[in-house]
Specification:
4-stranded antiparallel beta sheet, 14 helices, alpha/beta, 34% helix, binds zinc ion, single chain
Length: 412
Amino acid sequence: MINIQFPNQVTVKNPQDPHLHWRGYLENHFEDWDEQKQADTNAMMNLVLPMNKNFSRILAMPNTIPQHIQTKEDLDMYKQMVEKAMPLDKYFTETMFVVSLTDQITAKSINELKGHIKGVKYYPWGVTTNSGGSSADIDINKPQTREVLEAMQDNNIVLNLHPETTLQKDHNGAIEKGFVHDAEREFSDIVVEIAEQFPKLKIVIEHISTFDMVEIIESWKYPNVYGSVTPQHLMLTAHDKEGGPTFDAQVHCKPTLKTPKDLEAIQRLVLSGNPNIYFWSDSAPHPTEAKESSCCSAWAFSSPVAIETITDWFFRPETIRYWLEKELLSETWYLNELQDKLQAFIWDNANNVYWTPKFDKQIVLERKPFEVPKHYGDTPRVVPFNHWEELQYSVLSAKANIHWKSIDLLQL
Ligand SMILES: [Zn+2]
């Protein structure tokens, strides 16, 4: 019988969220102008951006509307919108940006964008929210793509992969590849091909949902390949979404939630302390009318409760019991080991990819129930991940220690 102990306090230094979405509306694409959509997305950005204030650093994804971020002009416009909603000198949260890998991106554009972006994001066509503007399966034998990847490798720019194959059917309409539950497994061949041919390019397999992707990281054959894990892929399977008599729209995400075997592999990888795996929320705020509808938008909104959610998961009795029984944690040191693994997962490991940030924050959580809000805002209204849960850790204090002053983030 294992006597489980829980720490009364947990300290997290410099949590970072290197992948989230705000769905900004780029005003420079006048040909696709939609005034109502612009007002709606701006209202959502203004609501959700300040909720990231506890993070030291965040990385914004580029699948904005009406078009993705692809140029320096797009980037400047998006930065201005972000800075307006979340002023840097108020929150001290460093924001990083990426552009989308579309047919418009060339080696020349990479050279123009270097110093302004941390990565280039590949979206397979038509598999997730706002991915329609991107190309089909990434083809590294295409000369333009090779030149882009070479320029990225030379300039230390990260390749962020949404790892799913695109849908392909034969002449009878039967699916040949890209079936929703198989698309990520099929993409593992593409990851390996890129990793082998561009060994100095940092490649991130985003939001890992399968055993197959875990195997690539665990094999250590490709040290230039990193992986990230979202709260929903760390905690849930397809059964949680659709196994009961009703469908839970709030956890519908892409890549879709998978099997218990996949889940266990992801959990094993995270708790192994592998330095090439790290947290990111992949949080995306969809208004309730879009999420809870007959054409439910994919993705969960987890960023505002991510630190509490991840801490709670690391210190859940079932997590601790499972790892002690498998002798993957030593009984005498497990509290320290879990604290170190949490810190590595939520901060240190991502530095292997994105380097050290500018600002220093310290979040102290205490073992006190935290009831996740049922929703944020009214118009727009957005429901957070874990809204059904009472978590066991609450933020006690959150401070940004900038070299000339200290800010109490809870007071903001
Ligand atoms: Zn994403």
